């Protein structure tokens, strides 16, 4: 209650400016940090929670339950920047191999990979191994009609860009769209280079344009 009162401005007339009356105290006591586009009580709570979690994750894992040990191992692996730099693109190349390679980063994908490539199998691997839903989103959640049970939901997944607007609208959307395509081209070239393949700029450009076309059709 005290916090709510602090965030209000009781000197303002709610009939004239209800926003100032309800939020004036907050506006007077807080400035949006330069690193943020917004700032609310939830952002403050998140920052406080991250500090607490950091302390917990950096403590010794002796005697911890398995779930806590896994969380600490994951945290340490993310903080080990020297090993991350040393491994370079190897984890990504291994992930690509797991899902059947990437045609744009393969010399003969159509001959060596495509005959044994199964979309159903690869979609399930993307979901189970990498928590990534492609083309189809599938998850288990409470049944809306019977909250005592869980059911399998099938839905559309998120797009590569934040929303459908990015694929069709002009202005800033078009600039983001062009940058997105260029980003894909850059990553493909980097992977080809790491696999000691020729750059072949025109081939990469054509392949990534096809990817963009497919994403646009899905967005539509």
TrEMBL record:
A single GO molecular function term of this UniProt record: metalloendopeptidase activity
Alphabetical GO biological process terms: protein processing
Any one annotated GO CC term: plasma membrane
Pfam families attached to this UniProt entry: Peptidase_M13_N (PF05649)
Peptidase M13 N-terminal domain location: 14-220
InterPro entries: MetalloPept_cat_dom_sf, Peptidase_M13, Peptidase_M13_dom_2, Peptidase_M13_N
Matches recorded under Gene3D superfamilies: Collagenase (Catalytic Domain) (3.40.390.10), Neutral endopeptidase , domain2 (1.10.1380.10)
Name of the protein described by the UniProt record: MMEL1 protein
Protein's organism: Oceanodroma tethys
Lineage: Eukaryota, Metazoa, Chordata, Craniata, Vertebrata
């Amino acid at each position: 209650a005290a916090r709510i009162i602090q965030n209000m401005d009781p000197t303002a007339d709610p009939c004239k400016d209800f926003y100032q009356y309800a939020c004036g105290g907050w506006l007077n006591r807080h400035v949006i940090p330069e690193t943020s586009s917004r700032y609310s009580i939830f952002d403050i709570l998140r920052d406080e929670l991250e500090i607490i979690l950091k302390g917990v994750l950096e403590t010794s894992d002796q005697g911890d339950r398995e779930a806590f040990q896994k969380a600490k191992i994951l945290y340490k692996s993310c903080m080990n920047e020297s090993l991350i730099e040393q491994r370079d693109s190897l984890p990504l190349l291994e992930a690509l191999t797991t899902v059947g390679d990437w045609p744009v980063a393969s010399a003969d994908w159509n001959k060596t990979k495509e005959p044994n490539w199964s979309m159903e199998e690869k979609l399930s691997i993307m979901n189970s191994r990498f928590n990534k839903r492609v083309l189809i989103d599938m998850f288990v959640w409470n049944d809306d009609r019977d909250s005592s049970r869980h059911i399998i939901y099938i839905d559309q997944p998120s797009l590569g860009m934040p929303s459908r607007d990015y694929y069709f609208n002009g202005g800033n959307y078009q600039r983001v769209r062009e940058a997105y395509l260029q980003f894909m081209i850059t990553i493909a070239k980097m992977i080809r280079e790491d696999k000691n393949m020729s750059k072949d700029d025109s081939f990469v450009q054509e392949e990534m344009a096809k990817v963009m076309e497919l994403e646009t059709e899905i967005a539509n």
